[in-house]
Fold SAT1 protein.
Amino acid sequence: MASENVVIRAARPGDCEEILRMIKELAVYEKMPEKATLTEEALRDDAFGDQPYYRALVAEVGSNLTDRTKLIGYAMYYFCYCPWLGRGIYLEDFYVEPAHRGRGIGTSIMKEVAKIGVKHRCNKMQWVCLNWNDVAVKFYQKHGGKDVTVEEKWHLFRMDQQELAAFARE
């Protein structure tokens, strides 16, 4: 096998097709493929339009023997605010292709998001994880993540588009 070099970099508009491919792979893994309805155009507009709603990093692998590169992972994040602590960074989505796991790529991506948070004077980084994903839970705990569901007894609530629109009309 050819030697590969992995680079973690900010996503560019041309990366959206590959990011969407990985989002769909993650949705299959999370047993919710029907929920991944986002389009490449929306993904691009929402990150690179006039008012970005998220930012992303990608992991790109290139071979020493060719000039070809391939995206093998990504992290989507955005800044948030906590009235108790102030600035925060929210890790919305995080994925490394299965064939490239166990080589420190996920740690490198997550560490880059953490560095961005520190650079922007964030007081916390937050994310969610499915309760059955023991591999991810152990990964996050290994890197200092705390399960606030257990420790602080928080519940995460959500309104999807239909509920949001109905509530707004009331």
